Structures are given as C-alpha cells and as structure tokens.
Amino acid sequence: MTDPDEREVLTWELFGLAARELAQEVADSGYRPDIILSIARGGLFVAGALGYALDVKNLHVMNVEFYTGVGERLALPVMLPPVPNVVDLSGQKVLVADDVADTGATLKLVRDFCGEYVADVRCAVVYEKPQSEVRCEYVWRRTPLWINFPWSTQPPVVPNASVLDA
C-alpha cells in the first residue's frame, strides 16, 4: 500500500525530458498525427511540447473540467465551450494530449467525442495511473501516486475573479 502523502514530483526540467521521450515514443511507433488535440489545462503544456518535437503545427484545444482540487472531482467530466468543430477533425489522424490519465474519464470523453469523425485517434500522456479506464498508446511513466506538476503545484498568483463574484 502506498503512503497517501507520497507524491510523484515533476519538475520543469524533468518535464522537458519527459515530453521529448514521449514524442520519441510516438515517432518510433510510426504514428504521424495531423492534429494534436490538447485537453486543457494540463494537456496544453504536453501538446505544445509534442507539437514542436513532432513538427505538428495544427494544435486544437478541448476544455474539460473534472478535478476541482487534490483528490476532488466532479461526478463526470464536463466539456466547456468552445468545443472543437468536428469538421476540423474530420478524416484526420488525431493525437490527444494530456498530463495524466488518472481515472481515464476525461480521455474517454475526448476520445469518444472525436472518434467517429477522425481517421485514427490515439492518446499520449506524461503519466498513467493503474485505475485509468483508458490505456493510452503513449505513456512516459506509470504511477499510482498523486502527481505534483510544476504548473499546478503553486497556488494562483491572483484568485479567480469568477469565484470571487459568486
């Protein structure tokens, strides 16, 4: 059994290595995506790094809310606007990029959303957890631990104005 306080810690420097190794894994498989579909917010970093490493300039963003805090999440992931236009994805080879496949619910939602329109859809994540219902084609590391990402470990510099107005 793992210690609940034990964490996987990803630094910015280690993220650079992880992203490059993840891109190499995609390249070595022979997969050449036409589009990288980022799951915001954590997937934005991954998609950008993969886009440069794989020389893919066509990046799209899908906003999905699921986690509301450490170990806290909504009952189901929710797509937030703007939702990508399926016409833009039609017939393309799509690489879905995210930081982690935890439960896999977010990745499943996105993969299923574009799956019927695209030629091929595959998933690339920095981390995959054992309980994920989606087994990603490209994974840098597998861990059962909570992950401290360099982009989300620190609190916001400015509180979210929409939360303050509520």
Automatic annotation (TrEMBL):
Glycosyltransferase in keyword set: yes
Recorded GO MF terms: glycosyltransferase activity
Keywords: Glycosyltransferase, Transferase
UniProt xrefs under SUPFAM superfamilies: PRTase-like
Domain Phosphoribosyltransferase: 8-153
Domain of life: Bacteria
Entries under InterPro entries matching the protein: PRTase-like, PRTase_dom
Name of protein: Phosphoribosyltransferase domain-containing protein
Organism, as annotated: Pseudonocardia oroxyli
